[in-house]
Amino acid sequence: MPELPEVETIRRRLAPLVEGRTVDALEIADPRWCLPLAPHELAEAVDGRRVQRLARRGKYLEWELEDEVFLLLHLRMTGTLLYDPAPGTPYGRVRFALDDGHELWFCDPRRFGTGELALGREARDAFYAARLGLEPLSGELTGPALRAPAGGQRAPITRHVAGVGNIYADEALFRARIHPLRPAGSLRPAQYEALAEAVKASLAAGIDAGGATIDDFRHPDGVQGAFQNEFLIHLRRGEPCLACGREVVKMVAAGRGTYVCEGCQPRPRLRRRAA
Description:
alpha+beta, Helicase, Ruva Protein, domain 3, four-stranded antiparallel β-sheet
């Protein structure tokens, strides 16, 4: 699934191409993409409006159009945005026709990607507030900010940060030397600080490498990302740890596969139950 660095990579490459342009026509071939709105309802809100800004919040790509109309795109598992794709490109679900003659296609073989409409900044902010955690590339992500919602919780701490999925959670936990089985509420203040910095460092590395292409992710021009060649821990099962040489293992934590070096990331001790 494209995560925050992949979406940010797309945003940075598309922004110079679409900002200031007008969407002449939004053609939605797959009604599932914009449910519960009908395709014609979403198209009527977008057609003829100028793109004022292309932004990102978590894994959402935000099209800010004239008159505070916001189109919020999520790639989900296999969505890609391709600029002027070759004829016959498969899985095209949505087509943006721009006023300069160029086209942008939303392609998605598994059809999980979505496009949602928010009218006005208040509606947009309420949409994000109901779905997203801390924004790591703003000033929101700090040790105390991570600690506040984690008290007493046993869920993974990275769930409180917007845009951090499996890849970057593994990389951040390794950088911070925190085992993925450690409950979120059991960390010490210094560990929250270390994890906040590790999340930001992992995401920054992913962005610098143009994102990670493991399955479907592509840049708008079709080029693959390169971060998969720089993983410190993710997908390295059976290989020696780059820091200590111990074998990297894969396990299940909170229902997802995760990669860990139990030399660098000590497994938490089980507490004995009171008699």
